[in-house]
Amino acid sequence: MATVTDTPIRIGVMGCAVIARTVSRAIDLAPNATIAAVASRSLEKAKTFATANGYQQSVKIHGSYESILEDPDVDALYIPLPTSLHVEWAIRAAQSGKHILLEKPVAMNVSEFDKIVAACEKNGVQIMDGTMWAHHPRTAKLKEFLFDSDRFGQLKNINSCFSLAVDEDFLKNNIRVKPNLDGLGALGDLGWYAIRAALFANNFELPKIVAASPGTVLNESGVILSCGASLSWEDGRTASIYCSFLANVGMEITAVGTNGTLCVQDFVIPFEETQATFTTCLKSGFNDPWVSRPTEHSVKTEIPQEACMVREFARLVGEIKNKGAKADGFWPNISRKTQLVVDAIKESVDKNCQQISLSGR
């Protein structure tokens, strides 16, 4: 937590995407961060965005991405640009000494992300992806239960999904359905969360085999609008993920262990900002499966999960800036693993649901 003597980390917003509105508010709510600048390819658009989001008069307005990279009063950049632009601008940000909070998916493929990470390591900057739910206090409680050998036991299977029903305008015009912008479609935008949940439950151990499920829906440009996949591990653990722009809202995790079961209904975006719930069910018998009824647990948070994310990012940047610490490799490591599974599912889709091995990747 920041103290009154700490200097807030100065964050620049590089791009005026819709999600940048949410993160702008999160930066305001985080106790150790402040919005220092905003940039767009149009000065007028940057000014309009700043006004619409209540930015302070002191916030610098940049009419180009190059300009914000050169701003000496910016410590870090939040980059919500289309995925196809990440590799160029994240590398340029790292080369400019800016720490990076990068929207997901982090790149079009893991090869691009490796180039971004190499630039970050060379320049000593922190990188973290924008997976907000990972920072909610509830997530720590989920981990506590999942890795409790008495209550949960050994993980056997996890199912995770994220679906949102979009309208016709979205399907025609949104960047998430354009191959030259966010060409990974629903897999990159929504599937990222479901994949991260599966990896989270498996302590971020990569699966051995990944295979897309039959029934993937593509648009006329070949961008994924809906898909599912199965993941399997060496010891028999399995996972299934589903993501779709064509189905009603679903944000669920169900994890089944040898002794317990975990269910979360709203893991991506909690029903409420100030608290979030999950249910657990402990070991029961074959003849009376509900001898132990599910128990609901509630976890409160002082600030929303996106502000928790910014707070942690700013803390890490502060450690580097003020104490000479090294960047935390945990975050780019789990980003890379998530991207690897995204890539494998995409490859399996392209190869008619062929099994893809992740051994050695």
Report how far apart the termini are. Answer: 36 Å
Name the structural class. alpha/beta
CATH architecture level-2 label of the largest domain: 2-Layer Sandwich
What value does the average pLDDT take?
96
The H-and-E topology, N to C, reads as: EHEHEHEHEHEHEHHEEEEEEEEHHE
CATH class descriptor of the largest domain: Alpha Beta
> What is the CA-based Rg, rounded?
21 Å
- Give the overall shape: globular
Share in helix: 25-40%
CATH topology of the largest domain: Dihydrodipicolinate Reductase, domain 2
Q: How many DSSP H or I helices?
A: 10
Low-confidence stretches: 1-5
Query: β content, as a range?
Result: 15-25%
What's the number of structural domains? 2
CATH superfamily of the largest domain: Dihydrodipicolinate Reductase, domain 2
The main β sheet shows up as:
10 strands, mixed
> How many individual β-strands?
16
Organism: Brassica napus (Rape)
Pfam family, one: GFO_IDH_MocA
InterPro entries: Gfo/Idh/MocA-like_OxRdtase_N, GFO_IDH_MocA-like_dom, NAD(P)-bd_dom_sf
Domain Gfo/Idh/MocA-like oxidoreductase N-terminal: 9-128
